[in-house]
Amino acid sequence: MANIEIQIPTELSLTKKQKDALQKAFQKQLVETLGANSAAIAKSKLMVVDVRAKSKNEVV
Amino acid sequence: MCLVTALTVADFIDPDLIVDAHVNTGAQLGVLTLAALLRDRGHAPVVVNLDDLFFEFIGRSDRRRATPADGGPQHLGEKTTRSKSFFAFVAAQLRPGDFDVFGLSSICSSYPLTLRLANAIKRSNPLCTIVGGGPQASVADVATLRAFPSVDIIVRGEADDTFPTLLHHLAHPDAAWQRLGGITFRRGDEIVRNPNAPVVENLDRLPLPAFDLDSRLRQRGGVHLEIGRGCPFACTFCSTNDFFRRNFRLKSPARMVADMSAIHKEYGLRYFSLVHDMYTIDRKEVMAFCEAMLASGEGLTWGCSARTDCIDDELLALMARAGCTGIFFGIETGSQRLQQVINKQLDLAEAKERIACADRHGINTTVALIVGFPEETRDDLRDTIHFFVDSLRYDHVEPQCSLLAPLAATPIYEQHRDHLIFDDLFSDMSHQSWQQDPVEAALIKAHPAVFPNFYAIPMAHLDRREVKDVVDFVTYLATWFRWLPVVLLQDSGDLLLVFERWRRWRAERSPVDTDEQIGWTPYHSHRRFHTDLLEFVHACYLPEMARANAAVRAVARAEQATIHQPQPASAEATDRLTDSTVAYCADGLCVVDVEVDYKELIECLRNRTDLDAIGSRNTTIVFSRNEATLNVWQLPALSAALLRLCDGHRTVGEVVRECAALGMDVDGIPPEKVCLFGLMQLKEDGFIRFSSSTLIWDSEAAGETTAAYAVLPQGSNTQQPWPVSVGES
């Protein structure tokens, strides 16, 4: 017997109060944003070279 | 006439990485300014940029492909061979016979290469004149001329006036050039050192550097621009105060703004690394520049160097408004005692306030530290690494720590020059690669007075090898992890104790991988360090040393999770939500359960409050990528429970039924509706996606990622932090 696909209604017929309660229940909190400069991003790259601080002389 | 720049690219393994590294190197302002001055006098100088040649060289190499399977690039053991080949490659490009005069610029780290090139040029064209210049030749002039007969003349210090005049005289068959100030030269067997030439007092009279000769300028994220010279301070380790005669000068604000505007219009660049060892000494001039920048309305951004005792919160605020996005603070040591010994004399409490202020204004701030001073004790070393790690509490601050290198002509070198030792612990201030080229290593050993920066000053109280290990440890700890170094410091109260325990723990394990086994990549930059360190935290630190156990474990668990890449899977994307739709976690999403309030924990680490006060409760955090950033979210329990069910196998129908069974209840709303609302919310947040069928994982690609085998320390190799994004106009 073929599976019967049940379309789920996108409108859940919620009252405003219910909607507010659900939004609160599923509300996520931003802890922090790690920028592109941060290690968390850097470590996802194929980075091997060591180009740390050289002498200040280099820009003379 | 041919001008050859000094090589500033420090290491080279992966061509793509060199592109990144190359973005913020290759300033070569001295050479490009000289080129502009020579053009004004009717010359047509050819500029050979060794950084560009380096880049071209590695681009041609077919040995550069990484083999992720072994965790590192292929044939790293041939690094020295490559370096040797690079020398031959450059020598072949120079066309010695085409020029009568070669001007070779220099910096300490690549001086051996520069002098090898001088020898090669002279062998091919014995009649040419080789003139050395730049920072290293200036301070090692006599020793260089004694040891390297291929070099004929050295122009010391600022060459803007001396070099064009020298060229003019060399074109005439007399010896008038020998009377020029600021040069050192050979007369028979004698080395003659003429008195110093005067410095350029009015820098506004210098032309804009010949940026058109920098073939890669448009590809850079910004441009270095000299705005002044001379630092009046006298730190014992610093060589630049000698080069510029400690004579503080600035270009006028009007000239600075005009130059920036002209470069922006010509090349489309919007970021300017304003080069001056210590810009903010003259507060009025800085304010005038900031006001001129604001008045220009062009919105250009810039960075500079400063001392924390020559800047205040009000000035920082103005600078930020006027486009300052980067600042370099040379703190040098976190030990108040050593601040006096090295004659830096910063008040470290004040320094911390300025760093915090720069961070508040969103200015990317480099905090530069040095260890390895001869008088340094364990307490001093601990204070410095604590300063380093404390800096990590700020989002916009990047600390960097270097091993002391005795630069020629510095007070610290003069004091210890008779006691220098040669070991294999090169400072990153000096080295050209992780391994020194053997030919150049022989030169270094034979001529300590020419290459003192490759030598070391013995430490009275500490083992230099251990100190180097500490530097690598904290540097890569900060590179691999965001909060782990901070929590380890805050929890232990003494990061050196943690380091020492880590060393013993590692030594007790057997066997320790050899360099060869980890692909010749230095251990700390290899992912093995990352995994070992986490294992140490779980197996040793937590049971033996931890006080705030849950907090440390939470950070370790979170940061362990972020390194793992998701297994790739095939999905049939759909936006239709039906009973048979399959929900799955979005690519790149990382979900971690911890036992503390993670948001509270991070706030505690930022503000250095009591770790023991953190609330204990099960929390789910999610790391989600958003282009160049990584957002860290703390999920409510319902979202977390739902997200766990979105595994790429369960259908929405099954998820709803399981939620109902779990009794997912909110204010009496039916569980089905709660569940569907939650799924839609997770979809809207970008945490989950829908597929019309069960996901199929690519078994060949499954398993731990092999992508991130090594990392780059988050340090700037310029005086100021380079902008994050490569912004064109």
Oligomer: heterodimer
Number of strands of chain B: 25
Main-sheet strand order of chain B equals: 2-1-5-6-7-8-9
Q: Got a strand count of chain A?
A: 1
Strand residues, percent of chain B:
15-25%
Question: Major sheet of chain B: size, sense and barrel closure?
Answer: 7 strands, mixed
| Poorly predicted segments of chain B | 12-17, 62-83, 700-719, 724-729
Q: Termini separation of chain B (Å)?
A: 35 Å
Average the pLDDT over all residues of chain B and give the rounded result: 86
Biggest β-sheet description of chain A: none
Distance between the termini of chain A: 80 Å
- By DSSP (H or I, 4+ residues per run), the number of helices of chain A equals 2
What structural category characterises the helix and strand content of chain A?
alpha+beta
Shape of chain A: flat
Report the helical percentage of chain B: 25-40%
Written overview of the protein:
- The complex is a heterodimer of chains A (60) and B (729).
- Chain A contains 2 helices and 1 strand; from the N terminus they run H-E-H.
- The C terminus of chain A is likely disordered.
- Chain B has a 7-stranded mixed sheet with strand order 2-1-5-6-7-8-9, sandwiched between helices. A 6-stranded parallel sheet of chain B has the order 10-13-14-15-16-17. In chain B, strands 23-19-24 form a 3-stranded antiparallel sheet.
- The longest helix of chain B has 18 residues.
- The C terminus of chain B is likely disordered.
- The interface between A and B is large, with 49 and 115 residues.
- Strand 1 of chain A pairs antiparallel with strand 22 of chain B, so a sheet runs across the interface.
